[in-house]
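hey so u asked for the seq, here:
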Amino acid sequence: MIKEFRLPDLGEGLTESEILSWKVAVGDTVTLNQVIAEVETAKAVVELPSPFAGTVAALHEQAGSVVEVGKPIVSFEVDDAGASPSAVAGPGAGASVESPAETAAKREPNLVGYGAVVEKSGRPARRQRSYDGSTGEREAAREPVPAVEPVPAVEQPARLAMPAEPTVEHERPRSTPPVRKFARDLGIDLELVRGTGPGGLITRSDVQDFAAGSQAEVSAPEVAPASAPAVGVSAGRETRTPIKGVRKFTAAAMVQSAFTAPHVTEFLTVDVTPTMELLTRLKSSREFAGYKLTPLTIAAKAVLIALRRNPTLNSRWDEGAQEIVQFNYVNLGIAAATPRGLTVPNIKDADKMTLLELSTALSELTDTARSGKTSPTDLTGGTISITNIGVFGIDAGTPILNPGEAAIVALGSVRKAPWVHNDELAVRQVMSLSLSFDHRLVDGEQGSKFLADLGAILSDPATVMTMI
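ran it, structure tokens below
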């Protein structure tokens, strides 16, 4: 029996994902839940487990393809055991060569974490091509995903000047739909590419060779001299790179945040010498032996303590309900620079953690983020964030709020500087703190008190004794 596995909604409400790599090939024998592919969503790389035990009969998409949710990506040859209800996955996944009525009658449960089954009728709605999209809080959703509204085409600037409109019709270059899409993504006109496949078919390799400049152009109408270079290709004085994946999502989220929430940023420079001395003592203590302790660890704990006294900064604005939602827990977001761009994974219930537990969670979070393995769950549900710009040698900045949060703290670098200490000029270790907050949720007084509390803790950790 042939079973098709359709790309599932990975619990984020997205309409499509990019297949980064296949872990199996046609003819391979796979077991239930064996990883068969890596796909990239808006924010993270996700390993896709096999919903069946059987043999890979066909791979319907190539690595690098952007695939719509619900579209078949792989077929398996399975026996009756491999097609058991417990092995079925995803929206539309597991659809065999049965009639729609039979499929509906035999509707099988989803693989955990893959979201709800997408019910479709008629022609599917056109989906906006995007490598990103917001990560929805739908991990436990069991309702059908609403149909995606058609998205109007967005006018794009010219990437490669197209040839002048010919006066007579000519044959369209021969290629497959995935190759044509690949060429469009790179801004390459297929009429300029020489096909090396059977009968002159233009292959993906032909497009790659042309983009790399290793293939001469075929005869074609003259290209305007002022044409822009192909996307992702260095040509002359500029290089163009596709806006996709995490960077595209980050850009959209930051624009939304900047033009939705009225930002206010306050600054405070403090003497953190006592905190740095505490850090040295903790590192040499038996309790913290083998654990990674940094100024971020202490600052994160200080943020959590200051938040208890200023809970308005741990809230969000619900525009639809016209309500202010104050959280009784803290999911602490930590901005992390990764090879694919900025992400803000968060530590769930960070307010309930000891300093030791927080240290461990921070280490795991940053290591996972840098490896690109952060799960979608860890990228959603944050309530307040920290961005550590000090690691780049920066003293202060005006951080933009993570969408849906009321505040974000930027930690500057720790520097030795002349400072008045005990009425005398001395060399001390100082840090600048920047706090941006949503002025719809947080008044200036509330933001100032929070920042003052944070500065007081870092200036003298013993101050905590008067706060808790």
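The chain has three domains: 2-105, 177-239, 246-466. The CA atoms of residues 307 and 450 lie 7 Å apart.
lmk if thats what u needed
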